[in-house]
Amino acid sequence: MLRQEDNELLTRVGPGTPMGALLRHYWMPTLLSEELPEPGCAPVRTTLFGEKLVVFRDHNDNIGAIEEFCAHRGSSLFLGRNESEDSPDGQCGLRCVYHGWKYSYDGRCIDQPNEPKAKQFKDKIQLTAYPAREHGGVIWIYMGPKEAIPPLPEYEWTLVPETHRYISKRRHFSNFMQCVDGTLDSSHVTFLHADAPLWHPSWTHQMKGARKNVLAPPEINVRSTDFGLLVGARRDSENNMDYWRITNWIMPSNVTVPRDDDEPIGAHIFVPIDDETTWAWNISYVPDRPLSHRERTFYQTGGHIHAEMIPGTFDPVRNKENDYLINRDLQRTVAFTGISGIVMQDAAVQESMGPIADRSREHLGSADTALVAARRRLMAEARALRDTGALPSGRDPQSHHLRSISAVLPKNADWLQETIELRAVDVASYRRAAE
Questions:
Q1: Which of 148, 176, 191 is the last residue of a domain?
Q2: Tell me, what's the pLDDT at 115?
């Protein structure tokens, strides 16, 4: 369990908080590229770390991420006109529809048409603006100090061809740390994502060797690294072998989940909207082949680690307002939870804890080793940044060049040494292919 003051440190992310300051030192995925499909398209509003923003792509293809409200009278710039250089003032920018004040992608006020030229003071007006870049099918925003801006991340899914990945995001109604805890928890898979017959005494189906003892509790091994954690979950396999699933946690909230055989690798990034709401990013990708039409259709309809969305929104069809459409007959006969979809099973239990889980009431065991290590790492680095200015880890793209894997290894094998080559990402080959 955590002391209440530690839980506050871990979960509060607004301006001026230690964890908020830590998270702002990373590039955060904010919009799908398709949300800003072309220069001059409509702006999009979003919220990160409690700050309301408008993101737009101007007619020169510059991406701006600026505070949402006009400096004049506070009207929302989401209503604004995205104007080209053909406009009367001859400049690209977002014009407020209330009185016509206009802003460039970097937040500068560049026109005040409701003021006589002799009395204009546009050069004194500057909206808060953050660097924004497009990379790997995503618009990323950096909200930390400009002097500490890192390179863009190089997670493997950002480097593969567009045909090899599928990206979705959804609004999740709890603090971001409940999401991180969930993805670092290997033992919950045995229950939350299980088939109901596994837990029925009359069930006689035999599983494949690597997964035969899926009901056995995993042995959790955690190694601290320069980027975060490597988490190895070991289960007994047949023929005196061990089945390992090795998960990467890259600071502060990026988790990749291993695949079996030719299945896709799953990746997650959890970005706080505010203390009680999170953008949950989910990526399915395959390093060595394009995704099939069947796979893409499956993901679009809520398969793998994606969710079926209410049309025109990023809110899932299955949600807390309708009890995630839980089906008790399905729970008895097919799925352990009666809830369809892996991520919505996750969402149901995480959101059921309340917007911010009270970790002072937990009773943790050995199965929780990884999430305890992640919490400690986040709190330690948030304190170090606050107290000494030490920059947080996991910002170097070189540390992103690894993948999560599953493997069957001999008993007592060194799981880290035996899987070095399997976990390595050949970044050079991606760069050659992109040239």
A1: 148
A2: 95
